[in-house]
Amino acid sequence: MPPIQGLIAYPITPSGPDGRVDLAALRRLVAPLAAAGVDAVGLLGSTGSYPYLSRDERRRALDAALAEAGARVPVLVGVGALRTDEATRLAEDARAAGAAAGLLAPVSYTPLTDDEVFEHFRAVARSGLPLAVYDNPATTHFAFTPGLVGRVARIDGVVAVKTGAPAPDGVAANLAALRAAVPDGFSVGYSVDWHATEGLLAGADAWHGVAAGLFPARCLAIARAARAGDAAEARRLDAAMRPLWDLFRAHTSLRTAYAAAEALGICRAEPPRPVLPLPREVRDRVAAVAEALAA
User: Fold this and answer.
1) ω before 272 within 30° of 0 (cis)?
2) What is the rounded distance in angstroms from the CA atom of residue 239 to the CA atom of residue 232?
3) Partners of 41 in the β-ladder
4) Going from the N-terminus, what domains does the chain have, and what CATH number goes with each?
5) Coil, helix or strand at residue 279
6) Which of 61, 75, 279, 295 has the most neighbouring CB atoms within 10 Å?
7) Residue 272 reports pLDDT greater than 90
């Protein structure tokens, strides 16, 4: 498996009201990511609406994304589910299809304990699909400590963590705590796009980016400047993205990404219900920002 590092781009998963994925639209989203040379495509992440799709639709989406990415770009795919047996089946599907790794969030209704999450990961890892820990407490209502990340990281087949980048004044300490907890070679990557540049500059291995699913060239430029140690250039490029970061913070990246994809003419799709599209006045603001960034 290629190492999980660099820029991982997360597109939306366009689907109809019946939950059926629009494969042609998904391929139009994935094609420019592969052409731009992102380090990986992150399919069926939170912005990719994984919890709202059936097992069959997830497999259809994965097959389409793999066909579009080809051998050029590895695909990480969300395999999170409420039940351990269902997450295991999704991981088995992903391995059979040819995904590079699975992104496993401990989705919960009943609050989970650390031991329950550990056993969940240990069971799903038996599928043989390399796994990345997906720490997203805003959606799963379970937060990983560095200690638990380190414990899970020692399960055979768990190879990475994707976690939210803290504010710039806390990123160095957070990264140091994670590095101290995990084995050498374990990938530590950050989401939360508006803090990710500082995470990369601090030494994170990967940026798991929603914006990269729509603006791969701009995000690649930031990632490459950070990798080269050019902090001034990385921050300058990041500053140009600030209008998008403000929309993400105010309206969530999922709702904003759907509106931006439509504004850019990539596809016509609405978020999965019960999530509603943004109000027209907000979509107009999203369109103005998206068009400026795409210019």
Assistant:
1) no
2) 11
3) 9, 75
4) 6-229 (3.20.20.70)
5) coil
6) 61
7) yes
H or E element that contains 281: helix 280-294
The CA-atom distances, in angstroms, between 102 and each of 68, 95, 114, 252 are 18, 8, 20, 24
- The active-site residue out of 10, 50, 109, 134 is 134
Bridge partner list, 222? none
Annotated catalytic, 134?
yes
- To the nearest whole percent, how much of the chain has pLDDT over 70? 99
Mean pLDDT of 179-193: 97
Task: Answer whether 0.90 is exceeded by the pTM.
Answer: yes
Strand, helix or coil at 100?
Answer: coil
What the block records as the tokens of 201 is 């500059």
**From the candidates 10, 50, 162, 258, which is the catalytic residue?**
162
Specify the long-range contacts of residues 173-182, CB closer than 8 Å, at least 24 apart.
175/199, 175/202, 175/203, 175/204, 177/146, 178/146, 178/149, 180/146, 180/150, 181/146, 181/147, 181/149, 181/150, 181/153, 182/149, 182/150, 182/153
Instruction: Single out the residue of 156, 193, 256 nearest to residue 42, CA to CA.
Output: 193
pLDDT-derived band at 135, boundaries 50, 70, 90:
very high
E strand spans, 192-266: 206-209
Q: What is the mean pLDDT of residues 214-224?
A: 98
